Amino acid sequence: MNLTQDFRDPLAARRILGAISIACDRIGATADDPVRIMEICGGHTHAIFRHGLDKLVPPSVEFLHGPGCPVCVLPMQRVDDAAEIASRPGVIFTTFGDAVRVPGTRGSLMQAKARGADIRVVYSPLDALALARKEPEREVVFFGLGFETTTPATALTILQAAREGIGNFSVFCNHITVPPPIRALLQDPDMAIDGFIGPGHVSMVIGLRPYDFIAHDFGKPIVVAGFEPLDLLQSVLMVLTQIAEGRAEVENQYSRVVPEEGNPASLAAIAEVYEPRPSFAWRGLGEIDASGLRIRATHAAFDAEEKFGIGYGAGAVAEAEGCACGAVMTGRLKPTDCPQFGSGCTPATPLGALMVSSEGACAAYWQYAGARGAAAR
How sure is the predictor about 352, in pLDDT bands with cuts at 50, 70 and 90? Predict the structure, then answer.
């Protein structure tokens, strides 16, 4: 299988686009009253704009960009907490690269590093654990971020640290889960969403069943999708077909990667190490019940919140004045509708996380939106 040939074939794309137009006509969708489909994953947002899919589909289809970037939905208070831990004497604070420039109220981790904090970019939690072995006199903290895609790796690293008895390693846990914010969006009476493109990598871990409530409780179709152009176009067609036929189901376009029941080994590691928090704050959505994970008491020795007395529950911190990240992440605004886009907020001087994260919608518009992005700047 060749992804370039098989999933980027122009002739196949034209056939699917023709079928999408026919489906839109069946539904009665128009440019003035389009079908509104939310892609949950930030990776899908970037793929849509990288390949120009938003311009290839008819104007009767509108993409909404959901809260699918874990760095972007992290509240500013948690960035402040991370910087506070990193500034403690004897700490080496490790993080993925897309988190270092996300602003908190007192600056970013990059700025904390400039003030003297020992902050290092790693590619996996195992890199942080290796650093803890190498630096036994220092406390190595890993910034645990991400949805269910990255949670298993952090859980397995904690279990490895426990087996080896590495006491100078801990995780500042900010792992979150995908289904609860979707429920929160659907419960918002002001949100108009006709269907969803489900996240491929998350679903590889959790499977399909956690999305049942979207179809059963709210009557909305969801199609779990891959990341190639034809994956996404086919998923749009599958959503439209469900709407045209009066169905609301969970369908799996990405069956070559996503098993229906998910990954049992990953789910077992998550269950062993983590438990749901009563609630967790999401930028743009506020506190959402059972949407975040915390390290179980059985593994408290590796919990940076416990080790450094940080805790959770200090309350949400307001965004910077003029920042519209919350509205963009919930599909209420397009990035170019934000008055700060390209002026007060750029990749070099970001007001919000959406402009600096590798999965942020504003970063996608800045990089790929061409004339639309340039006009907004």
Answer: confident
